[in-house]
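Entry: NAD(P)H-dependent FMN reductase
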Amino acid sequence: MRELNVLAVSGSLRAGSHNTALLHAAAKLNPGGLVIEMERDLGRIPLYDQDLDAATPPPPVAALRARVAAADALLIATPEHNASIPAVLKNAIDWISTAPGGLLLGKPVAIAGASPGPFGSVRAQLALRQILASVGAEVVVKPEVTVFRCDTRIGEDGVLADPYTADLLRDLLGALARKASRSLVDCTE
């Protein structure tokens, strides 16, 4: 079986983002069989404007759509902003979901998130699951990786210091790999 290409998307633009660190930790915890590539350009994506969503969209949008189309699966880490997902992440999903062919339709997606608060990113993940379901993505249901008090679990150097969170991330990657493998088999039948 070939390696699966996973596009890792952080919903945070902050340089010292715990969510970006969570994705880097996931890449290091890769159980094998996955090639995890980080999406680094969400901040360059213009605000969604249907007038710009034409045959030739803005170059950053075209590049993002190409990376999503080439990926077998997505791994999204989201912080929580006002009990929901950050605007930059919603904006990216809006651009991706309106691409010809519906790039998220049937696409396996795993969700994780970190927050210094006591609830992790549970409300943001709930909102993200609802958005992804509405565009037909195949969301990994379990395990739920909601890293609460992330400032005590992820060091200032961005290194994951919590073995429980590491185990959850490994399990999430395994579940994503299984869902993506099944999706590829279904597409070839």
